[in-house]
Amino acid sequence: MPHNTSCLKIFFVSIFLNGCTECKTNWVYPNIKHYFQQSVSLKPNQKTYKRFDTIKFEILVPGKMLFDTISKTNVQTDSVSLPFSIYVNNLNTAQPAAKDGYFDFVDSNGQKLLFDTMSSYIIRGITYHTATDCSNNADYLIKIGMVLKDTGVYTMSVGGASVNPCFFTNNPVDSISYIEYLFNLTEFNEDVFNSVPQNLRREGGYDFGTKKLFTFRVTE
């Protein structure tokens, strides 16, 4: 297993444990049962968009079969809820803050969705969280649209978290499963990122090799 992947898995376990407020002193670190990896479709894939264009995201898991990077096999997961997050930040520190927000999120019918505004929304960007429900549908399906409301250059990344079981028991947690997401793209617009002078870029760990980071420009 690559060293970076191992470090990432340890990091996620640490987050889980640090967030536990009722853990006993004799807590046993849970094993990582599955570490799933799933692609995210982004359309249209462009370097430049116009204001009020919509970027559409789709996650489709036929038969609820997820690829496990630990066992290198597809695993049937019909009793879990999959978390999914989108993080978008304004890259250029010289850009004025948006007066009415940078983006709106909409469902597949164009209806506006509520999202987390606790991440310095007006100053930097937004964080949107969602998860699949525990339905009896044959597939997992997430379809989200992001309406672009303000001009600028933005970085966008996708993230996962621990997979939530649909049915809870009183049994001790002896294992945890995680999911991570990768953009199903070949072009991540690193040239758009580099168009912003380095002294004006917001600080951050920008790594285009992860397939989790996408940069784009919005114009009038």
Structural class: mainly beta
SSE string, helices as H and strands as E = HEEEEEEEEEEEEEEHE
Q: What is the straight-line distance between the termini?
A: 46 Å
Helix content: under 10%
Summed up, the helix count is: 2
Low-confidence stretches: 1-6, 117-123
Any idea what the radius of gyration is?
19 Å
Per DSSP E runs of 2 or more residues, the count of β-strands stands at 15
What oligomeric state best describes the polypeptide chains here?
Answer: single chain
Shape: globular
| Fraction in beta strands | 35-45%
Largest sheet: 8 strands, mixed
Word description of this protein:
- With 220 residues, the protein is mostly beta strands.
- The protein contains two helices and 15 strands.
- Strands 1, 3, 4, 5, 8, 9, 11 and 14 form an eight-stranded mixed β-sheet that branches.
- The protein is globular, with a radius of gyration of 19 Å.
Secondary-structure blueprint:
Blueprint: H1 3-18, E1 31-43, E2 48-50, E3 54-61, E4 65-68, E5 73-76, E6 80-81, E7 83-90, E8 103-106, E9 112-113, E10 125-131, E11 140-148, E12 152-159, E13 164-165, E14 175-183, H2 190-194, E15 213-219
Parallel strand pairs: 1-14, 2-15
Antiparallel strand pairs: 1-3, 1-4, 3-11, 4-5, 6-13, 7-10, 7-12, 8-9, 8-11, 12-15
Quick description:
The chain has 220 residues and is mainly beta. Helices cover 10% and strands 41% of the residues. The protein is built from two helices and 15 strands.
